Amino acid sequence: MIKTSQYVISAVSKEQYPNQYQFPEFVFIGRSNVGKSSLINGLTNRKLLARTSATPGKTNTVNFYLINGDRYFVDLPGYGYAVRSLQKRFNYGGYIEEYLKTNENQKTAFLLVDTKVGPTDDDVLMYDYLLHLQVSVMVIATKADKIGKTHLAKAKKVIEMRLPGSQIIMTSMATKQGIEEMLTFIFK
Question: Do 52 and 39 touch, CB atoms closer than 8 A?
């Protein structure tokens, strides 16, 4: 379904957002090291489109990727990473808030949650904040292969309890689980 994908810009303010054509935007948001960039790479079937790292907190700007020339994937900085300075965390939070509050092109926010860890308090706050802003939210449970198939149903129930009313897609980049389901949603 994805024929072309390209990095466009790393923005730190609304003035730098590239979407003058008002294409729909699918935003990837979650705590640091949850797999936002890896998921973008998996969806586009490109290993190096979005930069990934084993070190949390590498994404520190709002990154735009043009998909098929008619929609954007937007990779936001992760939240909850305490090793960064307080000032940098405020900056990242400002980027996230400005994007979520001012961007009319948002179609859906994919809130990524680590399947093994379950929703953290920060994830619950972000979910509630997205609902407060009336942003359409889909929860993406990442790294589903890390807990074993027998524990998936239990992990999904934990997510449903902490994030009530959420739509959930279980994903794994190792097994490509959930990729087709996400692509079907994005292109429907």
Answer: no
**35 Cβ contact list (under 8 Å, min separation 6):** 112, 114, 142, 143, 173
Rounded Cα distance between 26 and 73, Å, is 5
- Encoded amino acid at 146, one letter: K
Q: Which domains does the chain have, with CATH numbers?
A: 5-187 (3.40.50.300)
CA 76 to chain centre: 7
Could you report the per-residue pLDDT of 3-58, keeping only the tens digit for each? Answer: 999 999 998 888 999 987 889 999 999 998 899 999 999 999 998 898 775 555 55
137-142 β-sheet, strand order: 5-11, 62-67, 71-75, 25-30, 106-114, 137-142, 168-170
The identity of residue 94, as a single letter, is G
- For the segment 140-178, what is each residue's pLDDT rounded down to a tens digit? 999 999 998 889 999 999 999 999 999 999 999 999 999
Q: Which amino acid is at 25?
A: E
